[in-house]
Structures are given as C-alpha cells and as structure tokens.
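Title: [Solved] Protein-lysine N-methyltransferase SMYD4 3D structure

Original question kept below for reference.
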Amino acid sequence: MIEDVDRPGFFKDYHRAVRKATTNDQFNEFSKLKTDEERVRFCFNLPAIHDIDIKPYFKGKSEKEALDKKEAGNRCFGRKNNIEALKLYSQAVVKAPVPSGKYWKLIKECADPKKMTLYAICLANRSAALYHLREYRYCVKDIDEALEHHYPRELKYKLFKRKARLMSHMKQHIEARDAFRQALKWLDWAKMEREKRIDIQTELQKWLKLYETGKVVKNLDIPESLTEPSLMVPVLTDGSNELFPSLSKKVEVHYDNNMGRFAVALEDIEPGETLVTELPYSSVLNREEYGTHCQKCFKITKAPIPCKKCSSVLFCSAECRQASLFHTIECPILDLLVGSGMSINCFLAFRALTQSPLSFFLNLRDKLTEENPEETANSKEVYDPTDFLRFYRLVCHSQHRTPEDFFHRTIMVCFWLKALKKTKFFEGKGSGSSDKISDVEAFIGGLLLRFLQLIQFNAHEVSEFMLKAPKTLDESKNESLGAAIYPTLALFNHSCHSAQVRYFTGIQVVTKSIRNIKKGELVPENYGQSFTCKDRSNRRMELADRYWFECNCEACQNDWPLYKNMNNTSMKFKCTKCQTVLPINPETHLMPVAKCEKCGEHTNIMGTLKNLQNTEQTFKGACKEMEAFNLEKAESLLVENLKQLETSLYPPYRDYHLTQEAYMKTV
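Solution (posted by the thread starter after getting help):
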C-alpha cells in the first residue's frame, strides 16, 4: 500500500480558502454536475480559484557552485581520493549551466568560454575519476557527453586518448582505433611545447600502427568485470498468456458483479513460479530520491546526468534524459508542485498526463468511453499495459464519491491547469489567459480529474531492496522509491493472505507465488499488510478507508492470529486422501494416526510430524545459505520447504509463514 499522505505545503490553505468562498448555492450546483469536464469548468470559473499567483519556480543552474565543486573535486583527485572526487565532480556537473538549444548555437563564437565549456569540463574531470575507479562504462558516457557540449578543442585530444584506452581495455578495438585517430587529429589544436607535442604524437601513432598493420580489427565481448550487472527479469512460468502478455499462461482474468475483474489460476500453481512481469504505464519517483535515483528508470545514479535547465532532478544517462518528455513540461514548475504539498498519488496522476504531448490526448478524444469490465475479461483483444485506454478504463468508483471528494480533487486539478499554462504543454491551444479556460484546457482538466480518481484504487508502491552492507542480508529492508500504475497487476484482487510476493527490477514489477494455488482458485495479491503483522480490525479499517471495501478473505473470515501469537497447540493437518482439515494438538494427541470424519481415511500424524522436523533442517540450511549470500541456493531450499509444508498442513502455521518471509528476501 502506498503511504499517500499530504506533505506540508500551500495547497491545503488554498483549498480551504476556495471552499470557504464557495456559497451553498454554488456548491449545490456543483454537486449536481455529471461529468469531470463540467466539474473542472465550474470550479475554474470560481473567482477564488484565481486568488493565487502561479509562477514558474525551479532550482536553476549556478556557475559559482559548479566552479567551487569542480575545484574541490580537483583537490581530492590530486590526493587520489577518487571516490570523494567523483561525488564532488557529480555535484559540479549538476550545477553547471548546460550549453544547449538555438540560443547557445547563436552565441557560441562570442560567449564567455568558461561558461560555455564549464559543463563539459566538469564531465571530463569526472571521467578521469571514473577511469581510475574502473567504472569504464560511465567514463565513456561522460566523455561522449562532454564532446557533445563544447569541450575546448585544444583539450579534445586528451578525451579521445582516454576513450581510446578505455575501449582497448574493454576489447572494443574498432572504437579504440577510431578514438586514437581522433586524438591524433585534435592534437593539432593543443597548446603545448613542440617537443611535448611530438612525444604525444609518437605515442598515438605507435598505438595506431598496432591497430592498422595488425590482423583484422574487430570488437570482442566486453569482459564481465567491466560491465554493469544487468537487471535480471525472470521468465514467466510456462510462458506468456496470449491475451494478457504480462501474465503467466497459468493465470487468466475473470469477472463477476461482486468481485469485478480478478485473476484466477488456469492450472495448479506451486511456490516459486513467476506469475507477473510488467513495466508501468506511468511512474513517479519520491521527492526524497531525486538526488540519488534516475527520474526515468529509478536506477541509482553512479554518475548522474542532469536536466539541461534545472538542478533538481537526475538521470542515469543521456538516453533516459532524452526519453523523459514529462520533465520538459514539469521542469519550470517542479518546485511549485513540490511546494504545494501534493501527495505521491497526485504526482502520479500529473505524470500520466505530462509523459505524453497534448496531441496524443486530442487524437484519442473520441475513444474515451467507459468500458464494461466484463468485456475486458471476456475479450479476445490483447490487453496491452502500455495502451492509454487500458489505463484510462481502470476502475474509478465515481458513483460512490461525495461532492466534497469531487470538489477537493477538482480544486487540485484547477491548480494544475493554472501551472500547466506556464509551460509549453498546451502548444498554443490554451486560452492564453490565466483566469479563463478553453475547451482544450477543460478537456485536459477532465482527464486529470479522472486520473486522480482511478489512481486511488490502482496505484502500486515501487520499492527497492536495500542491503546495509555488501553480500549480507542482515538489517536489509525494502525502501519506498515511488509509485506506478501497472494496468495488468491492477486487475488482481486482495487477500490478507497473499498468494504472491511482489518485487522490482528498476521500475519493472515481478511477482512470484509463495503458496500453492489450485486450478480455478483466486490468485490474490496484498494491498496493505499481511495478517501476520496487523490485526483484522486495523487491516479492515485501512482497506475500507483507502479502497472502499470490507475484506472477507480467509484470514479475515477466520480471524487468523498475528505471527507473534501463533503456536503449535492447534495445527491444521491435511487428510492424505480428501485434504479435509484435521485440527490436532500434537501435545495432547497420543495416537500415531488421525481418522478423517469426512472420508474415514487414517492419516499418519507421527509421519507428518517427522516430516515437519525435516523441514526445520531444510530451513536452517536455507538460512546458512542466506548468511553466505548464496541467494539462488537459499531460494531453492525455501521453495522446497514451502512445498513440503504445503503437503502436510494448512495455514496459519508459524514455520510456514517464517519460510514465506525468508523467501521474500531471496527473490
């Protein structure tokens, strides 16, 4: 569950002032409106809506700060403190003005050379620190970025020479040869004594001769030690569902009037099977992670690439920056949005708009109709999670909302519209006035209001499993990174006794089964907290408050105990023939067998207890593997343990849930 709390900010006072200025007659008129677009038009025309001065507000660049950080980095680099130098150079890169756009091209010849080249020089200096830290991949990216942003021509030979050596280390011999050629070319511009120039020229020609007179030059595989570990996404068990490509073939989607759309096992599912892998339709990073993670893919930024205009956000690469259309809209108003105190869900609703241009939404305008959820479950069309219409048609429960709920959300939308007017989003198709609303703006406002409603019920928290120290799970924990919309995963129903564990590789979600699910049974996930750590009344209260339903899962119906209150005095053994529950207290049950009242079969209780002792040993073995950080081996043992426990007992059972918790740490 996303902790969707409002932060300190001015929006609460703004909303309170608008609500206070709204007369009873006006509010009654608002409460009778039927569409989101009508609600937005009505509120935008309230005089109090415009009692706020909206201006672009963001953290810009600072030449002075960049120079100070660069010089501090130079001092650390001189002392061979490359880690601290990398940190300082990165801060300089973020703060340095970035030469870009038509304006920079026009003044290139007459601009202050220091300001023109500062960003590139900071990148080049950082590439030197990265080179010594053997972070070759990032080093090459910094060199390329510096060369694209007016690095001084008299120094270019140095960068090409460094790149050539990098490529040689990485066995990319074609690129190495080409970089040596470029180094030799740009050496003519270098400002140095003739003797030094000849020495460098001789060295470069020597390297070139090795490449040009030797055998056929070709690239080889980059040594594994020099590559960045890739994010491993497991393959869906039994392959992908033809109609729901984010799902395993073992899972399908059903519908009924009471449960809505929900996931069901098409075949028997065992612990450890991959059920879902899905990229989000939209995602947003927590404000606290802006300084450490990429805005686009949520990866930790070892050598961050900044926005070209602000110093608030980071990207892991120029490619992620280029792909982040949303930030070109959000950039000039980002700190305004943060200052409003918007919740993470509000940011996600806003991001669902800014990630696409205005023309995208206008082209879909005629297709924005309500969808019968039953048709989705029974349709033969592929459910594409990247399709806007799949996102748009997720449940909103608008029919259950109060006028106050609608009013509060609509005021937020009006604030957003006023802020968007200060950006390039409306592409000249807006009203051109801060206190008037055009048809296009009202349409976009209606979309935003719908996004706010559907995200309440369909958003997922994106988290990162953090190790306190390398290669140990001691004190490790999941930390929230942000929020995202996964249109397929959003179709799963809830249970306090979830059938799967959810984890993330970057922004891609993966779920794996953590218990047996029989063919035809519900495949639930968990929207909040498990029954093992929160009592039924509090679970139900939180779910009713956020998702508007009372949970009647097995754990709630039977009021299963918290993990800390579980004991072995009452265990639910399985009849070996018909699987009926055999409630037995092992401490008082003196007979080696138990008779099933349903089928009359005798189940060997002593044999089952011996099997449970074996699972204890397997669990201890898994724990040792976890301590040694052999996670694949530990995962295999824990899956084996879950299967063994499933053959003998029904939950709740202390060792069973302890094994599930351990398994969640290994995936």
